[in-house]
Amino acid sequence: MNNFTSILFCTDFSSGAANALKYAVKAALRNRAHLYILHVVPEADAQFWRGYLDGDNQASPDSGAAELRAKLRAEYAASIPLEVNWEPVVDAGPAPDRIVSFVREKDISLVVLGRPRPRFLRSLLFGSVASKVARTVTCPMLIVPEA
């Protein structure tokens, strides 16, 4: 059995992500690992969210990130036992790139992602975040299909 010390759960707040969280929490409990919960805002959307969350278009990136971290806490805290040490993280940019960078920066030992039901044409043309990350990271990765 692997001894995972740090686990990264990536979320887009979808039902597929919620299903994957269960596996990330179980792995964190079993291994007494630190759990990071990462939400990546695409760059184009990041500008919108900063203005929306702060009420103006001149808002600082830090205040928008704080609002999204609060949303992560509100969304997931009830599903995470008190024994699990976890941290909400927000980043902006292309999701696969930001996830891979985070894995390298934090020396993540397991990545857990949800995968939505495949949409053939979209998958064929663009691929999925999970597949792009899986081709790059060197640590184990668990891709959980949408229930």
Can you put this structure into words, describing what you see?
This protein is of the alpha/beta class. The protein has one domain (6-145): 3-Layer(aba) Sandwich (Rossmann fold), CATH 3.40.50. Helix content is 48%, strand content 21%. The protein is built from six helices and five strands. It has helices at 15-31, 43-54, 61-76, 95-106, 120-126, 129-134, and strands at residues 6-10, 34-41, 86-92, 110-115, 141-145. Strands 3-2-1-4-5 form a five-stranded parallel sheet, sandwiched between helices. The longest helix is centred in the first third of the chain and has 17 residues, at 15-31.
Question: Briefly, what is this?
Answer:
The chain is of the alpha/beta class and about 150 residues long. It is built from six helices and five strands, in the order βαβααβαβααβ. Helices cover about 50% and strands about 20% of the residues.
Keywords:
147 residues, alpha/beta, Rossmann fold, five-stranded parallel sheet
Number of domains: 1
Oligomer: single chain
Task: Supply the number of helical segments.
Answer: 6
Distance between the termini: 26 Å
